[in-house]
Amino acid sequence: MSFLEANNIVKKFANHLALDDVSVAIPENSIFGLLGPNGAGKTTLIRIINQITGPDAGKILLQGKPLSREDISRIGYLPEERGLYKKMKVGEQALYLARLKGVSRNDALKKLKYWFEKFEIQPWWDKKVEELSKGMQQKVQFIVTILHNPSLLIFDEPFSGFDPINANLLKDEILHLKKEGATIIFSTHNMGSVEELCDHITLINNGKAILSGVVSDIRYEHRENLVRLEYTGDNDQIKKIISHHYQLEASQALNGFESLLVKMPEGTDINQLLRMVMDHCHIHSCQEVLPSMSDVFIKVVNQNKVTL
Asked: Which stretches make up the ABC transporter domain (predicted)?
């Protein structure tokens, strides 16, 4: 059974159909990528899950039961639009927001001390929020989002404003939260992060869910029969042999090896390629090249435009 299900969700705003019969199923204890171009309907679906707005049709189920107001305490939501009060002191505001989530004052202070020290922002406890960098404000809001130990976490562009070091720190914490049992919805335009973190995804475009599945399966299903061959030997000879049978997509020198990207006909065995060249060079590696999630995203969205 899925931890969270959105079944046949429809949402209209005036003359705009934001969600058109969208269904998603989010497995328990997974990181689920909710993807799509700007204006696709992702944030609308997230707002419905958070009960900020309601659907015009369809329903949300949490562990098989209709989502209720009481379930809000089980959700932690980090929105793309950050919402800290600029004039309040950092520690005072973090404590206030934790108390709103039902955490006792003593527990909140203990947990905030732990997280502020872990994220190295303890010296900013008595500073006003407006004195913090965007990245530091993001750390504070992340802490407040997870402080009440919610079973469902929703992160909308969580790495916005972070340098690579702090982005990796946040990625590690997200993976740890999953390890501790949380189910996570992760909305982002960063496809590299999707490949690193997500188990499953749904891609929404123009209000419709147009692609869903396990990340590794999706990449495999959209493969284009590309093989990367790395070798040392007579480059001109090898290229001549291969191009007589297959299509050469790219050639470059890489880490002291010659590297060729070869497009193979559907159903062709890589071993055929290896047998063809192995007597003429020293092969260092040969492997299929799967498309990145960025490649898949662009391909599927563009195909969807054509069919509209």
From this structure: 4-231
